[in-house]
Amino acid sequence: MKNSPLFNLFIASTIIFLTCNAPVATLASQPRLLKDINLKKLGFNPSNLTMVGTTLFFAAADISGGGELWKREGTTVTRVKDINPGPSNSHIQHLTAVGDTLFFIAENGVNGRELWKSDGTTAGTSMVKDVNPGINSSGSSYLTAVNNTLFFTADNGINGYELWKSNGTTAGTFMVKDINPGPGYSWPYQLTAGNGDLLFFAADNGSDGVELWKSDGDTAGTVMVEDINTEGSSYPGHLLNINGTIWFTATKDNETEIWMSNGFDWNTIKVAKADINSGGSSNPTYLTNVTIGNSPNNIFFAANDGINGTELWRYDIANTTSIPLHINSGSDSSFPFRLTAIDGKLYFIANDGINGYELWVSTGTIGGTSIVEDINLTPGLGSNAMNFTAINGNIFFTADDGTNGQELWMSDGIPGIYGGTTKLVKIISDPSNHLQISGPNELTDMNGKLIFTVYESINGMQLWQSDGTETNTSMITDTQAGTLSSYSQEFTEVNGAVFFRADDGINGMELWKSDKNGNTSMVKDINPGGSSVPSFFIAFKGALYFTADDGSHGTELWKSDGSEPGTIPIADINPTPEVGSNCGLYTIVGNTLYFIADDGENGSELWKSDGLAAGITEIVRNINENPGEGSSIRSLVDVDGTLFFAASDGVTGRELWRSNGLSSGTEMVADINTTNGEGSKPGNLTYLDGTLFFTASDDMDNFELWKYNPGSSSASLVKDINPGGSSSPRSLTAVDKTLYFTADDGTNGREVWKSNGLSSGTIMVANINTIPGFGCKPDSLINFNGSLYFEADDGVNGQELWKSNMASTTLVKDINTNPGHGSKPASLVVSNGILFFSANDGIHGHELWQSNGTDGGTMMVKDILPGSDSSSSNFSYYSTDITGTIFFSAYDNNHGDEPWIYKVPIFPWPMFLPAMTVGKR
Question: What's the pTM value of the predicted model, to 2 decimals?
Answer without folding.
Answer: 0.68
